[in-house]
Amino acid sequence: MATGVFAQGIARHVYLPGVVVLLAVGVLLGPDVADVIRPQLLGPALSSIVGFAVAVILFEGGLNLEIRVLRWQARAIRRLVLIGGLITAGGATVASRLLLGWDWRLCALFGTLVIVTGPTVITPLVRRIRLKQPIATILEAEGVFIDAIGATIAVVALQVAIAPSGEAIGAAVLGIGARLGTGALVGALGGLALALLLRRPNIVPRGLENILALSMAMTLYQLSDALVSESGITAAITAGMVLGNGRSHALREIAAFKEQLTVLLIATLFVLLAADVRIADVLALGLPGALTVLALMFAVRPLTVFLCTAGTDLRLRDKLFLSWLAPRGIVAAAVSSLFALELTHAGIAGGVELKALVFLVIAMTVTLQGLSGGPVASLLGVRRATNSGYLLLGANPIARHLARQLSANGEEVTLLDANADECRAAEAAGFQVLPGNVFDADTLARARPDSRLACVGLTSNEGINLEFARRIAEESRGPATYVAIEADAVGVTADAVLAQHAHVLFGGASGLQAWFARWRRDGVETAWHRRTAAEANAVVVAGTPRPDILPLVIRRGERIDLVDLATTARGEDLVEFAIDVDHRGEALAWLVSSGWTRVELDASPSP
Question: What are the distances in angstroms from CA 219 to CA 116, 157, 191?
């Protein structure tokens, strides 16, 4: 565990995919080199450790799959998982037969083993490369779902290989449906029960939610396996999806806990499984082994993608990138270890070679595709644009109004909020909404702050707004940050915001709580104003704004920007002010006396 965590840290410092470093460390510390890590000493416990880790990893993978997002690319995902799995298995079988000359039985087992890609390698790469939608959604969903399909087909194929007969083949086909069906049923019922338990905060005591979810994930995995062997993977994924798409006060904390645990388990597993493979066995495959992997990468995968995405709205560049990125991960390694043992026990030769070839597939795909994924994505133009769009922390009425105005620039605007009611209101208004806690690493990663032009802290809690800006500055180092603060702030001042190299939203401290209350009771009107010639080239609001006036955005030509302390109105610039309707007369009189003239626009958005 410690070695895996240190390897992950090194990988981040040197900007390498974590799995590449983990594999290298596993080999270097394994029996063939340093002989420090010896997986064989674990004996049968190794498979138990792998099973535990896989259950947690896939439960977390299911937890992050949003059904409403998956629907957008359901056709491509469904084809890649169902039809694509069969094409991959067939293509890999033929490639290994032609290039390695193995018997058909061993080749077919290899084909079923490499069906899977897996979230252990896909998800970190997708986030690291910062892919556009829909490619990111397709790759992540394919990685999770195909683990269940691929692992099930592989285990059934092993049973047929060990005892081939017409009866065995018929039973195997029925076995695939039984395993997937049992896993889906157990996972759905267990996930639903867990979601219901966590929906009401008074049922599960505070502080026990995370470990309850962990214990349930393990229980469902083992229970499903006990009912029908090798159905636990499907149960773990299904339970995670059901819980992740339900409503629970503890869902954010569970997701954050599972994410940390998944990172630890992935690090541990890759080191263990890399150390469990003999270097001599891999080298014995020689050039034919390497050519088999290259055939899988450059022939089988592209054929799979182009056949399965025909007729979809994916562009050619999207299909090309999907064809390139398909690294194999933990599930393939774990199942190949099981195959080697079972084939040896059955007296069938080739188990060691099979395990070595699967490891070679993992090593080559992870290294080549992991290192080249970023440059290939840039070449094809499928990476998210940088310095583009806005991320607003808050889906409240003021945030929705700013989002409406900023969207007029043609920029993408995303609202991030933990309040379910505010999220629903924002979605109903047509905005892109990301529900969740901003301080959850996974939620913030999905918000893609690193690619934004600006990130805005606009909740009623000024402390959260400032902490949001600080975290964005530490982790993203790209977008500008804006912070809304109270007029009578004690802890958060304009100087504190400027010390974080952030901008003070609305041109200064404002009565946030009062403005939120006014907006909710429709006590606000908005109007555009222009400076008179004598007052041009001056800051929008000099000194502390009045409590009944709030400068929102500035319009310069066709572009709309946020207002901060240094915003200067000049020439034909227009500034939109929010005005307290209860003090409308005094507010308008002050604006006139300060050199502002009201301008009527044909399409002035309503609050």
Answer: 24, 26, 11
Which residues lie below 8 Å from residue 389, measured CB to CB, with a gap of 6+?
A: 411, 412, 413, 414, 451, 452, 453
Which residues lie closer than 8 Å to 146 by C-beta, 6 or more apart? 80, 81, 84, 85, 115, 116, 117, 118
The torsion defined by the Cα of 8, 19, 15 and 415, in degrees rounded to 10, comes to -80
3-state secondary structure at position 453: coil
Average pLDDT, the chain: 87
Pairing of strands 524-531, 596-599: antiparallel
Q: 515 and 524 in contact (C-beta within 8 Å)?
A: yes
pLDDT of residue 155: 85
Domains annotated for the chain, with CATH where assigned, are: 44-380 (1.20.1530.20), 390-599 (3.40.50.720)
Whether the per-residue pLDDT at 603 is higher than 50: the answer is: no
Pairwise CA distance, residues 195 & 218, whole Å: 16
C-alpha 214: how far from chain center: 20
Helices 104-113 and 330-345 pack at an angle, to 10 degrees, of: 150
* pTM score, whole prediction: 0.72
Judge if the upstream peptide bond of residue 302 is cis by omega within 30 degrees of 0.
no
